[in-house]
Amino acid sequence: MIRVLVVDDDPLVRAVLVEMLGTDDEFRVVDVAADGAAAVESVRRHPVDVVLMDIRMPGTDGVAATRAITALPSPPAVVVLTTFDLDEYVYGALAAGAAGFLLKDTEPAEILRAVRLTAGGAAMLSPSVTRTVIATFHRPDTGRRRLARERIATLTPRERQVLAGLAHGDSNARIAADLAMREATVKAHVTRILAALHATNRVQAALTARDADLP
User: Fold this and answer.
1) How far lies 8's CA from each of 76, 92, 94, in Å?
2) Where does the HTH luxR-type domain lie (predicted)?
């Protein structure tokens, strides 16, 4: 059973998402919230595996709520839902630790798939989206560049090669093929890289690589 929190300021959208999740016995909606502050409080009160998070809400928006939720102990995965394509809000949510994002007009089956994947620890973000988000909205400052280089310096040469693949938005399979490695080995390297970079997901690792100007 995958426990889901639905967050949206539009009551109709909340109702549609709850009804959609209710069509599959694999999912259980444990709560709904109308804004980011209520979402954070709900995660503190209820065991949650995945949060479907609206990005633009009055008061505490989805970016701030995502940042607060991912900072909690053993946080749930956050999937951002938006009516807008790539913009600075989506970038902010991903940088804050969201596992991915979907447009609200995404097919229901794909939304359910995203919940299932992120509950299992995967990221729901295509390589092209990763590259576009970073290239369009990422502007590193001097302090972040220095910290990124210090953290990357703790990686082995092989881990840096894997990180370079992450920075390009490559999948584990693509990295494995490029580096002549087993995919399981790449996955192990990615786990170590995320820990060393204090990153919660592949997107944050990619941002750190770009901060450090990793080729």
Assistant:
1) 17, 17, 18
2) 148-213
